[in-house]
Design goal:
Elements lengths: L10 H26 L7 H17 L4 E8 L2 E8 L4 E7 H10 L8 H6 L18 H15 L8 E9 L4 E9 L5 E6 L39 H6 L5 E2 L11
Parallel strand pairs: 3-4
Antiparallel strand pairs: 1-2, 1-7, 2-3, 4-5, 5-6
Helix pairs in contact: 1-2
């Protein structure tokens, strides 16, 4: 929508969200490794996301910024909903978002970012490439997935914002707020890197770990076929609760 004025969170909320992210990557994961003296680090990448999500729920959420905890197969993500400005946020690495952009035309099924981007109908990017052929099945799947993610709250959401971040040597190097178009082009982007705190700490813990792209999210799970129970309808039955910090207890297995 041409000339639309975008309304992001106040600076103090940007700081608390980014602090939740940096604490997980700079401090929490190293404290965990040091405490338990792990010999291997196979699950470190996933553990980082558990700390990120926990920090968001416990330290960033309040009466204005509510958390929605979603389970997609074995992958759990946290959405943040600004009750005043009606914007919905989630976090993802920049490199993962770029990968999703590149693979959009190849995906047989919609990714949850495809679904959430439907909240930004009317926004366009100069790089958007309109499809010459309609895929009603794919579009319907994306619409159904969006409903499963936000349920009855969809009419109360004005825009979706992806908080993208980049890391280098286990530290945050950049953060930006991205409004993706339906085609996953970047309709609008604002750099939030100025809100990254300076890291003066040192750690004695070192480990070598380079996650593959497949480990970024949504680990595929093969389930035994059961009557009336598939991965899709298991996801459809998940409750979506918008709650404040003190009501958000982690009850699902990661």
């Amino acid at each position: 929508m041409y000339g639309e004025e975008f309304k992001f969170l106040p600076d103090e909320y940007k700081i608390s969200i980014i602090q939740a992210l940096t604490d997980a990557i700079r401090k929490d994961i190293y404290d965990f490794i040091e405490e338990f003296d792990l010999e291997t680090s196979n699950g470190i990448h996933f553990l980082k996301w558990d700390f990120i999500n926990s920090n968001l729920i416990r330290n960033a959420a309040d009466g204005r910024l509510h958390c929605i905890k979603i389970k997609r197969g074995r992958w759990e993500l946290v959405l943040l909903y600004d009750t005043e400005l009606k914007y919905l946020y989630t976090l993802m690495k920049h490199k993962r978002f770029i990968q999703l952009q590149d693979q959009k035309k190849k995906r047989a099924k919609a990714h949850y970012i495809d679904a959430l981007a439907l909240l930004n109908k009317g926004l366009h990017s100069p790089n958007d490439q309109l499809s010459l052929f309609e895929n009603s099945s794919w579009d319907e799947g994306a619409e159904n997935l969006l409903y499963n993610l936000v349920r009855e709250h969809q009419d109360n959401i004005e825009r979706f914002v992806l908080i993208g971040f980049s890391t280098l040597k286990d530290d945050i190097t950049s953060v930006s707020a991205i409004l993706p178009s339906v085609e996953l082009g970047i309709a609008h982007e604002v750099d939030w890197s100025e809100f990254i705190s300076t890291d003066y700490s040192t750690s004695n813990v070192t480990f070598n770990y380079t996650p593959s792209d497949e480990e970024e999210e949504e680990v595929p799970v093969k389930l035994k076929k059961q009557t009336g129970a598939t991965r899709d309808n298991v996801d459809d039955d998940l409750p979506v609760n918008i709650k404040k910090d003190d009501d958000n207890k982690k009850t699902e297995e990661s």
